[in-house]
Write a structure and sequence with these properties.
The chain contains 8 helices and no strands. The chain has helices at residues 25-36, 40-53, 58-70, 74-87, 91-107, 111-124, 129-169, 173-232. α1 (25-36) runs antiparallel to α2 and α2 packs antiparallel against α3. The N and C termini lie far apart (154 Å).
Length: 233
């Protein structure tokens, strides 16, 4: 077993009698020896050769899955364990394969699938304490993962809301242009009105000056006329 503190991994190789596995037995035997020497790559080759001789050998599938698992080929290993569950007629073998499927999912941090696999294993073998331990651990990791995902989603939502509020409070360039244009029009209008008013004032001033000038001329004419009359008289 590896990583016993986290979860248990069934590594015991399945064995068969020569009577039930005459064709693939030599490869199974060689694979077992290589596996025990931790030569997992060569062990994989032997188990694949065994499957070439007997495609329905659940023993070869199970041991191949273990060899792949040791090489961290978790997807391939899981596929072999699934084949064992589908083909084997032995509930204990199926339970062990499901246990190791759960371990593959744990390595991939797919805790929900791991929980499902361990539960299925316990249905076939309720007395397997190692699987029960792994199920409890997988449930704990699943809850932590879900909480982290919820927190990440909340942080993302908060960030989007902040960006949305900033966009709403940000002035609209087109609206600013319209406001500036309107202000310019108002200024031009004010300037125009002021010019008309000034012009009117100027004209009034000219008219008033002209009136005063005319009145002064008239007075001068009257005064001169009187002086001339008085003088002639």
């Amino acid at each position: 077993m590896i990583m016993k503190k986290l979860f248990s991994i069934i590594i015991a190789l399945l064995v068969v009698s020569t009577a039930s596995a005459q064709k693939e037995y030599p490869n199974l035997s060689k694979g077992k020896k290589l596996y025990e020497k931790e030569n997992y790559t060569d062990a994989e080759i032997q188990y694949r050769n065994a499957l070439l001789k007997n495609q329905k050998s659940d023993v070869a599938m199970f041991n191949l899955g273990n060899s792949l698992f040791r090489q961290q080929k978790y997807d391939e290993a899981c596929k072999e364990f699934q084949n064992v569950v589908a083909l084997s007629k032995d509930d204990k073998v199926k339970a062990e394969a499901l246990h190791n499927m759960g371990n593959c999912f744990m390595q991939k941090n797919d805790f929900q699938q791991a929980v499902n696999a361990y539960k299925s294993a316990l249905k076939l073998n309720p007395n397997d304490n190692e699987t029960r331990y792994n199920l409890a651990y997988a449930n704990t990791m699943l809850k932590q993962q879900q909480q982290q995902q919820q927190q990440n989603q909340q942080n993302q939502d908060d960030k989007q809301n902040m960006n949305k509020n900033d966009d709403q409070n940000k002035p609209d360039p087109q609206e600013n242009q319209q406001q500036e244009k309107q202000q310019m029009q108002n200024i031009e209008k004010d300037d125009s009105e002021m010019t008309d008013e000034n012009a009117k004032q100027i004209l009034d001033a000219f008219a008033n000056d002209e009136k005063q000038t005319q009145e002064k001329v008239n007075r001068n004419r009257t005064s001169n006329s009187r002086k001339n009359i008085d003088k002639d008289w």
